[in-house]
Amino acid sequence: MIALWHAPGALTSTKINVKTLSVIFCLFFQQLEIELGVEVVMINIDECLIEKAFCSELSCTNILNKSEVPYPVYTNTSSFVGVKAFVDPVCECQINPPKTKCLNGGTPLEDRCECNPGFEGPNCEILSVGFHGDGWALYPPIPACKEASLSLDITPMKDDGLILYVGPIRRNTVLNVQDFMSLELKDGYPRLLMDYGSGTTFLEHKQSRLSDGKLHHIDIFWTNTSIEMKVDSCQMSSCLRLTTPIKPNEFLNVNGPLQLGGSFVDLASLSKEMLWNYGPIR
Ligand SMILES: [Ca+2]
Known about the structure:
Laminin, Jelly Rolls, about 10% helix, disulfide bond
């Protein structure tokens, strides 16, 4: 298993961040397996990936525990000293990072960040990004929460395309976890695919075409018993689509990054390998 974590201060001289390095690992893991003579079971250690392995009925989040005792490795000719760190599961749903963590050169104040121009998020994130069919943005994986939601605003210029995908980047025959979520546009209408591990279910919203050049708001809510998609914050039942996940699995456990606007994974090939009832579109 390979895990990359950001060590504050350690990478100040490089422009490559941890997420970028993780993607490079994902893209070249097969080459790495051959070069190193090992099998890579997992990129990003995820103790929450196997449903209910640690948290029977509750949410599960990975945290990094660092020891103050260094980790020495002795060989015949050299010695190496590193940081002793373990990834542990916590039965809680932790989504938001601490508010004082300011990104992109922002300055932490008492309870907020003072951000540089162009970074409008509460933690100085970029809140809007455009895609032209050949790019994607990466965000951290989604924790396995008992109740979770995701909201976004989109202005689609085409009728068909992938809005977001979070799930496996390849078939893992050892762990065999097939959970994924994808939101896409099909003929101008939003379609949500969700697989908790025992079958893919989907929601289609055909109330209004979203590829009209206007800004549209999408809310997705999911729990262990229901999956819901709402468009443009409409309170009428016609704007709401609801379904239940396919049992017996109850949680969305995903290890890969959330990919927005496209995917670095060949989803067409992956769909053929996975046991998905419906595959995400490219
Ligand atoms: Ca699951």
